[in-house]
Amino acid sequence: MRDRWRAIRMLARMAFATDPWRTLGLLLEPLGQLTPPIIAVCLKVMTDGVLHHDPVSVVVGAAGIAGARALWFVGAWTGSWLRVRLMEEVGFAFDREIATLTASIPGLDHQERADYQDRLELLRQSQGLLGYSVNSLIYTVNIVVSGLATLVTLAVLSPWLLLLVLFVLPSIPIAAAHQRWSRAAEERSAAPARLARHLRGLTTDRDAGMELRVFGLRREILARFRTAWTDSMRARLTTERRAAVLANVRDLIFAVGFGGAILLALWRAAAGHGTIGEVVITVYRCQRMQAAVMSPIQAVAALGSVLRAADRMLWLREYAGSVAARGSGSGPAPERIRDGIAFERVSFRYPGTEAWALRDVSLHIPAGTVVALVGENGAGKTTLVKLLCRMYEPTKGRILVDGVDLAGIDVHQWRQRLSAAFQDFARLEFTAHHTVGLGDLSRLDDVQAVGSALDRAGASDVLPHLPDGADTRLGSSWDNGVELSTGQWQKLALGRALMRERPLLVFFDEPTASLDAQTEHGLFERYAATARSGSDRGMVTVLVSHRFSTVRTADLIVVVDDGEISEVGSHEELLARTGPYAELYDLQARSYR
Ligand SMILES: Nc1ncnc2c1ncn2[C@@H]1O[C@H](COP(=O)(O)OP(=O)(O)OP(=O)(O)O)[C@@H](O)[C@H]1O
């Protein structure tokens, strides 16, 4: 119950923060629902006035009825007018908040962990309900107020009818059970629903499109989509079937009370204590009694799905808040690295997994060096990069920058000192100029800076080939958009990585996989030379590559093997050691020869 009030408070706060005047205006709407008892009283005053030939009472009663109707009309009219606008505004405010929160969470848990993805899936599914929440809340208040007003009216007219409420009460536990089952069914359906969305996405995804066609996967993917969709619907359908059975039980219980009331009225009429007219009135009042109690219960139950959406929103807020509090120290990021970066017995496993991705890693990277990480697929190279970018915090051990624990440094400040190009680079479909310029927002429109970054990335040949040069819109799915080859996209991503003027740490995590070995080698040889000579601030470059011809340009080579560091040294030192590095280098050199 406390959770429900918390969710209601959150929704009301959001509506008030989004548009206080409209929200206050809407609160007047339920007042219109108080009109039935006012009209009943006024009707009585008017009827008594007619019977007792009292014109004042007739006029007061009639004026009261007209006033109450006007109140109802104004409430209903302004309510629906205000609600539509407020729904749009609140829906937009929630959309914006969800996007802001998911984008600003410093780590990657919510994008890489299945359980968090499931929660986000449910939030995504119920996103529309959040916009609708104002409508639901006001509707529920309206129905509850109107139900209470009707109950009071009926209690005044025939107090004994209140006994019938006992026959409607079983609706409450039945509605509560329905809500519990619905929540459980939604949670069970999250994973298959996400799978279904992924499979549907594959059928429209440009990158998957080629393979789907070459391997004739259309039928297979559609069959899997159907299975996932059926799985996601199964739990919900079972819940609805069980709820339908309970609804019948509920109606049966009420029918017993209702039948008893009618029989009583008939018996009284037969015994000469009442009239057939009273029997008809009893039937009518019993139905109103049922609606007066049942409708609020159903409205509150229907509000349940909105409140579950609000719960998920609260979870996202709390999660983002807790990550921000846990993940970010408040210390300033250094302006330069004097000594170097040290891994001190760092072990790491991805949240929600048992296997160690890194085990007891100790490593010193001196300031001003270019360091290369090599190792087999899955060895842990990218994980080391992710820890340095602070996408995750070490499970054990510490990373020190000039002796200062990285965890104590403000994560946003630290990220401003980084620059990176990844193998899974983002295809930012803007103008070619902005695609590169986004690497340094403060110089987004600086033509010279973009040109110089592209030069250093060996990518100055990309723009002249585009129809509108730097102003060409990228991405063929846009009007006049131009598609690039993977290598061209990758070159622009490299240019983006070289936009920041004074980074302290630059990552190249296999960003040149689409370039040939010689181009990659030439590029890094030039890059490493400028990085060393210009590195007055102790900038460290981390290069991940499977090409040993490139790796040999590094000052320090770190061989990662199954989450551990097996060798560290310069190219010459490692060759002289005739260990795993020398073996792999020789193998690759021979295959090139
Ligand atoms: N998000 C994740 N969640 C759970 N485990 C992960 C995640 N990312 C990587 N791993 C696991 O961590 C280990 C190290 O992966 P990592 O990506 O660091 O390897 P890598 O050396 O960069 O490999 P590659 O050369 O193929 O890019 C692997 O066993 C991988 O399965």
Task: Describe the overall structure.
InterPro entries: AAA+_ATPase, ABC1_TM_dom, ABC1_TM_sf, ABC_transporter-like_ATP-bd, P-loop_NTPase, Type_1_exporter. GO terms for molecular function: ABC-type oligopeptide transporter activity; ATP binding; ATP hydrolysis activity. This protein folds into three domains: 2-324, ABC transporter type 1, transmembrane domain (ABC transporter transmembrane region fold, Up-down Bundle); 333-417 and 503-593, P-loop containing nucleotide triphosphate hydrolases (Rossmann fold, 3-Layer(aba) Sandwich); 425-501, no CATH class. It contains 21 helices and ten strands. It has helices spanning 2-18, 20-27, 35-51, 55-104, 109-112, 114-125, 127-157, 165-168, 171-204, 206-214, 218-270, 276-327, 381-389, 411-416, 432-437, 447-456, 486-497, 517-533, 548-551, 571-577, 580-592, and strands at 340-348, 358-366, 370-374, 396-401, 404-405, 418-422, 505-509, 540-544, 556-561, 564-569. The strands form two sheets. The protein has a six-stranded mixed β-sheet. The longest helix has 53 residues, at 218-270. The protein starts with a helix and ends with a helix. 33% of the residues are buried. The model has no long low-confidence stretch (mean pLDDT 86). Bound molecules: adenosine-5'-triphosphate.
